[in-house]
Amino acid sequence: MDEATKQARLRSAQSAVPMELDAATFRDLGHQLVDQLARFFETIRERPVTPGQEPAYYRRLLGQSGLPANGNDPGRILTHAADLLIENSLFNGHPRFWGYVTSSAGPLGSLADFLASAINQNVGAEALSPMATEIEKQCIRWLAELVGFPDGSGGVLVSGGNMANFAAALAAQRAKATWDLRTLGPGGGPPMRIYASEETHTWIHKAADLFGMGTAAIRWIPCDRDARMDVAALRTRIEKDLDDGDLPFLVSATAGTVSTGAVDPLSDIAGTCREHNLWFHVDGAYGAPAAVVPELKGMMDGLSEADSIALDPHKWLYCPLEAGCVLVRNPAHLPGAFSYRPVYYHFEGEEEDPPTNFYEWGLQNSRGFRALKVWLAIQQVGRSGYEQMIRQDIALAEAMFEEADAHPELEALSHSLSITTLRYVPTDLALEGEERESYLQDLNTALLEKLQAGGRAYLSNAVVNGVFALRACIVNFRTTDADVKALPAILTELGRGLHQTLSPGRA
Ligand SMILES: *Cc1c(COP(=O)(O)O)cnc(C)c1O
Questions:
Q1: I want to staple 246 with a disulfide (CB 3.0 to 4.6 A). Which of 56, 240, 241, 371 is the partner?
Q2: What is the largest CA-CA distance in the chain?
Q3: In 3D, which of 494, 503, 101, 71 has the Cα closest to residue 288?
Q4: Which of 148, 143, 133, 177 has its CA nearest to residue 347?
Q5: DSSP string spanning 200-242?
Q6: Atom 4, ligand 1: which residue's CA is nearest?
Q7: Contacts 24+ apart (CB under 8 A), 59-66
Q8: Quick one: which atom of ligand 1 is closest to the CA of 284?
Q9: What's 152's DSSP letter?
Q10: Predicted model pTM
């Protein structure tokens, strides 16, 4: 058999492997998908935010067939998948999506994910991902610089804010235990205590529970009227626990609370932590990138003093899900909490230029290349691009607050960073006191459900000083002034309709 025939046979055998795509097919499918997605981005504004159907509707569309026995034409199944998703998704990239803290994602990020998965690096060890590991390290340095964290700090990318906060809390727990916690576990010493405000995101329940302390280890510190941690109460509680022989070790402050975007008094908390030798963590999953806006310097003061920061590139840095990041002032604390070196890995490299093996820096072992989309996003827009877009979101949230405040049927409740809360209050409401509050809660709950299913705009909810509120979190570079101005009419139309049917005394 001559060489050419041998090569031709090999090629045809390979093309018969069920998983392989030949180059020509890959090119065709890729172009087709990119065309479909370009049309999607082009028309996103004209689409409803969500189809707003019940789960059974989507189940029906999907069909109930069992495990495919044999293979299918890749072009057909890929186009079908794209159609299903484009026609039946809630679009957090829609200009009127303001629910939760889920941002619009830059389209470049989707191409970055495509590239990352095609090259498919395992960024668990530098030997397996030489360029990708260096890109991730550079990306982390840039993120640190963006939020004003000092040179020499380090970090790792994770799937999101929960994981970033977990990694920081584990590093803190291991750094501050006065015994060998990694060997003996939490029972090897006095009870460890965590301090966090009542507005802290629920990651902290999971962390205290899963890391062996139990949720009772969390000391809930009350907040002021603006949902910021009361630092005097924090000090009192730390001192009491010290008197009782407990081991206070971690204060978790929040820069941008999930309900109202409040920023804790970071500088004062940093001082308290220094005084008592506690780990100062800042959950900036949502709000940390606001440090890039010079006008907010006062509000963000103290962020750079943290021992660790959690931030989410998939929130205010407009990267597609999933991308979270934990930054630590002293990078040694991450391997200090997570590193084991089993005999079956041989990743030590050369002593004079040791590799960074991220499997030793966090909870994951095999790791995808989520840094690529973050690294590209930062290059695409630069510091000035983020400053402009974040400032714009804050201005839009403020405009929304003012629109509501000026409207006779809306009550503006709060505004901080890019979160505004408000509620619908009918002008002819005769109820008072508790009856009034309870009716307004029912009315606004029903309004929110209708709004969320309707597809015209999307809000979530919060409880603000005991009041049920509609909540807009604008982390959306597509939102315009006109979108914000359209909201009051949508809310009042729904509110009036519901008030007609619900109204007490109109039985
Ligand atoms: C979103 C958020 C989290 C959780 O982050 P995920 O990326 O959803 O895991 C934690 N804390 C705050 C303040 C958040 O806004």
A1: 241
A2: 95
A3: 101
A4: 133
A5: --THHHHHHHHTTS-GGGEEEE-B-TTS-B-HHHHHHHHHHHH
A6: 161
A7: 61/88
A8: 13
A9: T
A10: 0.95
Least confident residue range of 223-232, 255-264, 338-347, 442-451: 338-347
Q: Is 312 in the pocket of ligand 1 (CB under 6 A)?
A: yes
User: Would you say 131 and 372 are in contact if contact means Cβ atoms under 8 Å apart?
Assistant: no
- pLDDT bin (cut points 50, 70, 90) of residue 8 is confident
Pocket test for ligand 1, best of 258, 319, 374 (most atoms within 8 A of CB): 258
Decide: 418 in ligand 1 pocket, CB within 6 A: no
- Measured CA distances, 8 to 24, 287, 312 (Å): 16, 57, 49
| Neighbouring residues of 85: CB distance < 8 A, sequence distance ≥ 6 | none
254 within ligand 1 shell (Cβ under 6 A): yes
Q: How many CB atoms are closer than 10 A to CB 437?
A: 14
Q: Per this entry, what is the length of the chain?
A: 507
| CA gap 356, 347 in Å, rounded | 9
Distance 286 CA to ligand 1 centre (A): 7
User: For the segment 442-475, what is each residue's pLDDT rounded down to a tens digit?
Assistant: 999 999 999 999 999 999 999 999 999 999 999 9
